[in-house]
Structure formats: structure tokens, C-alpha cells
Amino acid sequence: MTRLVHAELVKLRTTRTARALLVLAAVGTAALIAVVLLLAGRPGQPALGEDALRQLVLVPAQPLTLAALILGILGMAGELRYGTATPTFLVTPHRGRVVVAKLAAAGLTGLAMALASSAAVLAVGLPWLRAKGIEVAVADPGVAARIAGLAVAVALFAVAGTGLAALLRNQVAALVVGLLWWSQGVERVLAGLLQQPGLERWLPLGAASALTRPGDGSLPMWAGALVFAAYGLVLALLGARLVAHRDLT
After folding, report:
1. Whole-structure pTM value
2. Which DSSP string do the residues of 148-190 spell out, in sequence order?
3. Which residue range is the domain that position 221 belongs to?
4. Closest Cα partner for 163 from 230, 60, 222, 238?
5. Could you tell me the pLDDT band of residue 237, with boundaries at 50, 70 and 90?
């Protein structure tokens, strides 16, 4: 199994999309943080405070989760679309193991993206805040918790994207459904139809928000992680089962 995961990581590492997303996770985050810091305190923008670093580490959450979702979808659906999954399944006839390896590789790559982003936040944010006379502690438990929560969220979005692509098989359909879901359109409609107060925080994106927007009326971080992971696991299991029993053509 370890060899399969390594093989899938090599595939991702050698694709331009994955490399571009990893670079953008670091460079894009650095640019985004610089813009936020430049605008801080100006009319209509909040000033920098003692909790500035806690806020900064979650600034790239939205683009990161979207990038991870797309990475997961393309990593799975791309192979099915272009037929490169066929030799993979010939070498490893147990398709379920291949899908599990893809899920693991996507999750690990998402984790790497989140850590690269957080490193960029610290590299830009720490000296900037200290130059402004704002004392920040790298060892702040709140900062560490938010970095960990963001890393878990991004990894799970990559896993969810892989599971969604395995379930739908069609790359375009998976991207459309994934983007509609990520934009919260699906969950808002569902919550509106059911009219159940508090339902949204138990839906996938609501649970994920406990990791990317903690304390914003969401579940506790640990509960959000468990709920979102459960959704991702169900999606992954359904996708793996369908890939294992359907023809590739």
C-alpha cells in the first residue's frame, strides 16, 4: 500500500497542475498577506491588533480549499478521462487500493499546500507585525491551533475532491458540482428547503468552517473536523466502490 501511495505522489508531483498549485499556495499567500497588511487600518479596513497573526493564518483559507478541491478532482477524473488509469489498474488489479492510494496522496498534497501557505504567512506576517510594534508569539497556542485546523481542512477538501471525481467519473461534471458545492450554493438551498435552524453547521461546508472560521457560530474545531471527515469518508467509499465495479470505458 505504501508503494501505491508513493506512486500516486510521484504522479501528482510530476504534473504541472499540482506543481503550480503548490507554488501558488506559497507565493500567492505571501502576496495576499502583503496586500492585507498594506490595507490594514485604512478606511473600511480593520486595524492590526494583538490577535493579528491568528487572523492572518486563515486569510488564504478560501483559495486554498478551492485549490485542494480542484487538485483532488483533476487527480482522479483526469486519469479516468485520458485513459491513464487503465495501465494503473492493470498493474494493480485491486482498484479499491488504487483509489485509497489516490485519496491518501491527495490528502498529503493538500496538507503540503496548507503548510507551505502557513509558512508564507509567518515569513511575511511576523517581521511586518514586529516592525509595526505589534508583539506576536510564534508559540501562541491559538495560532498553532488555527494552522492545524487549516491544514486538516485543506487535506480533507483534496480527499473530498478525489472521492467526488471517483463518484461522477466525468471531469467537467465533477468540477461543476464541486464548484457549486464549494460556493455554498447547494447547502444554502438545502438549508432553505428544510428550514431547520442550525442545520448549516452540520452540512459539509458548515462543518469545514469550524476549521477555517473558528468561533463564527460554528461547531468546535474538533467536532467540525470529525463531521467533515465523515462526509469525506462516505464520499470516498462510494467513489471507490463505483470505480471498483464499473468499466473504465
Report:
1. 0.86
2. HHHHHHHHHHHHHHHHHHHHH--HHHHHHHHHHHHTTHHHHHH
3. 2-245
4. 238
5. confident
DSSP string, the chain: -HHHHHHHHHHHHTSHHHHHHHHHHHHHHHHHHHHHHHHTTSTTSPPP-TTHHHHHTTTTHHHHHHHHHHHHHHHHHHHHHHTTHHHHHHHS--HHHHHHHHHHHHHHHHHHHHHHHHHHHHHHHHHHHHHTT----TT-HHHHHHHHHHHHHHHHHHHHHHHHHHHH--HHHHHHHHHHHHTTHHHHHHHHHHT-TT-GGGSHHHHHHHHHSTTSS---HHHHHHHHHHHHHHHHHHHHHHHHHS---
**Residue 225 has which C-alpha cell?**
473536523
The model's pLDDT over 16-37, given as tens digits with 9 standing for 90+, comes to 777 788 888 888 899 999 988 8
- The tally of domains found in the chain comes to 1
Measured over the CA atoms of residue 184, residue 44, residue 24 and residue 111, the dihedral's sign is: negative
The pLDDT tens digits of the residues spanning 91-133 come to 555 656 777 788 888 889 999 999 999 999 999 988 888 888 7
* Rounded Cα–Cα distance for residues 97 and 82 (Å): 20
Give which of 228, 240, 187 is closest to 68, Cα–Cα: 228
